[in-house]
Amino acid sequence: TPGHAAFSEMRMRGANVTDIVILVVAADDGIMPQTIEAIKHTQAAGVPMIVAINKCDKPEANPQKVRERLLEHNVMVEAMSGEVQDVEVSATTGAGLDKLIEAIGLQAELLELKARPDRGAEATVIEAQLDKGRGPVATVLVTRGTLKRGDNFVVGTQSGKVRAIVDDKGKQLQEAGPSMPVEVLGLGGVPSAGDNLTVVENEQRAREVAKYRLEIATEKRTALAPTNFDTMFSTLSSSVIEFPVVVKADVQGSVEAIVNALHNLSNDEIKVRVLNAGVGAITESDVMLAAASKAPIIGFNVRPNAKARDLLKRDNVRMMYYDVIYHLTDAIAKEMAGELGPERIETVVGRAEVKQVFPAGKKDKAAGLLVLEGAIRKGLFARLTRADVIVSATKIQSLRRFKDDVDEVRTGLECGVVLEDTNDIKPGDNLEVFSVEERERTL
């Protein structure tokens, strides 16, 4: 799977549907965060592992260091007196690949892997996409039985009939047995990666099961929605800024990874709202949805169709095209930070107590202060508090020491101030003076 952290779900599915995991670790880069994650998924699934130490042809390769680092994650290879097989390979030169195949054969023999091909098939969706010429296509791994052309099936909330089975070389097959990865055509829609495909006795049964599953899924979504007017009002009046987007990608796994990555950018101040996420080309409905919410459309390895292109120009909807998820998340994070505006950094400069209040001109009042801490400076922001409750957020309009105008008065000295836009001042009040620095915000 892609190494980016956003593809965590894909790695977890891979560990759960396989009988043997081949953990590929680069001999030069060593153990990476995604390597550790793959190890955890494998251990959680209870699946045997074979370690393939790749790039052993490079001068900087250090296979022994990889073995030692694996110990830190409870993976003890045979070379370190453990039970996990490890093989040094090079994908570039092909060195060691024959030994890797032998190791897989030995592990399969030890596991006594068996399956019954003479029963209705079950399979797991590894990936799914909407192909322009072929319609919905699911890449599945057959886990039980034999999948045949003409079989009626249910997958997630979709039903269908196997119209074609295609192997990894593009050859059309009549059937696919256990452990075979194949593409299946004939679906009613694009399923989700991780869905189970089950062959049923006839088309009517397939539709009934799919309809029932759709009803259950709808009920769950309804249960998660606001249940009363108070909850709805609370949601609507929330101060959290929403950043709406429409997501379209070439395959279901990428859609899932992108949506997860976008949600991870959300915080207490701003959150991503995915209006729609789907597989296939960008359509007119995607553009209309984005236009209504003033949202950009993210296209990951996909482009708009002809009608959608016309609407994009007419409605001035912004397109964001990407083929690398790092670039996508970096760009969205930057835009979200821009929505929040600069970050205000407050630094307390001084604190003082109001000792007396007296008139200053026709309308204003002046406060006689004793500086308790730091310094009071002219022009800075200030908070006037009474019994620890903020009475006014203001600024130091003028500052005097006896009869002289000054810029600053330090700890232990008395002074007089006029505060901007407030006359609600009483003896015993406290004044906190602070500076404000605006910095470019990052997520």
Description of the molecule:
By secondary structure, this protein is α+β, with helices and mostly antiparallel strands. It has 4 domains: 20-111, P-loop containing nucleotide triphosphate hydrolases (Rossmann fold), CATH 3.40.50; 122-216, Translation factors (Elongation Factor Tu (Ef-tu), domain 3), CATH 2.40.30.10; 240-340, 3-Layer(aba) Sandwich (Rossmann fold), CATH 3.40.50.10050; 344-439, Elongation Factor Tu (Ef-tu), domain 3. It has 10 helices and 24 strands. The strands form 5 sheets. A 6-stranded antiparallel barrel has the order 4-5-11-8-7-12. The radius of gyration is 32 Å and the shape is elongated. It starts with 7 loop residues before the first helix and ends with a strand. The model has no long low-confidence stretch (mean pLDDT 89).
The CATH class assignment of the largest domain is Alpha Beta
Which structural class do the helices and strands define?
A: alpha+beta
| Main sheet characteristics | 6 strands, antiparallel, barrel
Roughly what fraction of the amino acids lie in strands?
35-45%
Query: What is the domain tally?
Result: 4
Low-confidence stretches: none
How would you write the strand order of the largest sheet?
4-5-11-8-7-12
Helical segment tally? 10
Helix content: 25-40%
- The N- to C-terminal Cα distance equals 26 Å
Mean pLDDT: 89
Radius of gyration: 32 Å
Shape: elongated
In CATH terms, what is the fold-level topology of the largest domain?
Rossmann fold
Looking at CATH, the homologous superfamily of the largest domain is: Translation initiation factor IF- 2, domain 3
